[in-house]
Amino acid sequence: MHNIQPISSDLIYVGASDRRLALFENIYPIPRGISYNSYVMLDEKTALLDTADASVAEQFFENVAATLAGRTLDYLIINHMEPDHAALIASLLLRYPSATVVTTAKAAQMMEQFFGNKPAQLQLVKEGDTLSLGRHTLVFTMAPMVHWPEVMMTYDATDKTLFSADAFGTFGALSGNLYADEVNFEQEWLDDARRYFINIVGKYGLQVQNVLKKAATLDIRMICPLHGPVWRDNLTFFIGKHDIWSRYEPEDKGVVVIYASIYGHTEAAAMRLATLLGQRGVKDIKAYDASHTHVSTLVSECFRASHIVLASATYNNGLFTPMENLLADLKAHCWQQRTVALIENGSWAPQAAKLMRTELEQMKDITILGETTSIKSAATPEHEAQLNILADEIAKSL
Ligand SMILES: Cc1cc2nc3c(=O)[nH]c(=O)nc-3n(C[C@H](O)[C@H](O)[C@H](O)COP(=O)(O)O)c2cc1C
Ligand SMILES: [Fe+2]
Ligand SMILES: [Fe+2]
Q: Distance, CA 345 to ligand 3 centroid (Å)?
């Protein structure tokens, strides 16, 4: 059964959602599922904008066929070659052999790499090139490294719609409501949108800033991303979030406490600090056990908040691995411009604070606050006094 949704009289949503996949890109947990968006334009000429993941092939092809209703497909526009959108290109072209593939030279090269040959009818486009479908004029704009080097976006200059590829996307399956203004986005989607953005394109803040600058010159009334809901209202809210995220600036003034603890003594000290912060009026403190919370959530939370407490046990002269993993991931995502406080633990030669400091010093504009609380096995009344001082300093710096 097809499951298509008209967006306008000649723009149809033909994507589909997957709630079975546990790990997106085989690494990011997606308990709320994911959507693979794809769109058909029914003008004098017909065009399909991107395909979908192989997991939703059956639904996708049924949707495309129902939308075209016997018409031929004239153009297949490929904005991004990652297989979550591009996996079905070869099989689509078997079904619609007369379609001309419109894409970048880099994407065409990747088609050859993935499928063994370039499409028979291929139209390469560069920055600013246009394609007329009849009523609609499409303008192509390059978006390298948002999220791969071959990425472009397609702007429908007629209806002022931006087909934004992976940008402005989010984890989360669609559940009957196609538009962001039909769901409780801030409460139910924003955390996943942040986690998606930070982990997937967060490393490329500069390139995202370039795209935002280009977008600012366009009159955009609707954003059709490759994942998650379509934006037709309050676009500035979501664009503003991407602006903050891609500048690496904190979204919230607040504290996130993350501990990596084997037997619980480091955890106890970290949670004592959290309580002392609460007693000083700090609101909405979030605490995470790095062994239990996926690193993609931890990284996302470190991007959201301004102040981070990192507490780690020493482990074979190194950091307890969940903390080591988190710091490596933060570094990989160019995490910067934050205030950090450190707690360490070790029963014979505590090393954790020194090792965390070494990692943090390689990042840009990280301020390490106060004295490190160094625990030997279990915290003492002396540590309670130190944690009180640290809580004062964190509260003051907020
Ligand atoms: C496998 C393992 C390796 C450890 N390696 C070190 C070490 O190299 N140096 C050290 O001072 N303590 C080391 N420790 C001790 C812990 O850091 C210490 O017991 C600490 O109090 C644990 O805190 P926790 O209760 O939060 O897990 C190790 C503990 C374990 C289980
Ligand atoms: Fe991608
Ligand atoms: Fe994607």
A: 40
276 within 8 A of 201, measured Cβ to Cβ? no
Sequence-distant (6+) residues with CB within 8 A of 91 are 57, 61
Cα end-to-end span (Å), the chain? 54
Question: Residue 49 and residue 39: Cα distance in Å, rounded?
Answer: 5
* Predicted local distance difference test score (pLDDT) of residue 268: 98
Neighbours of 81 (CB within 10 A): 24
Q: Select from 259, 261, 271, 315 the residue to mutate for testing ligand 1; criterion: most ligand atoms less than 8 Å from CB.
A: 315
Q: What pLDDT band is residue 327 in, cutting at 50, 70 and 90?
A: very high
Dist. CA 338 → ligand 2 center (Å): 28
Residue range 143-180, pLDDT digits in tens: 999 999 999 999 999 999 999 999 999 999 999 999 99
Name the class of domain 252-397: alpha beta
284 — phi, psi (to 5°)? 60, 40
Query: Which CATH entry fits the domain spanning 5-246: 1.10.287.1120, 3.60.15.10, 3.30.200.20, 2.40.50.40?
Result: 3.60.15.10
Closest approach atom of ligand 1 to CA 313: 17
Secondary structure class of 377 (helix, strand, coil): coil
Question: And the tokens for 44?
Answer: 């004098």
- Residue 394 · residue 380 · CB < 8 Å: no
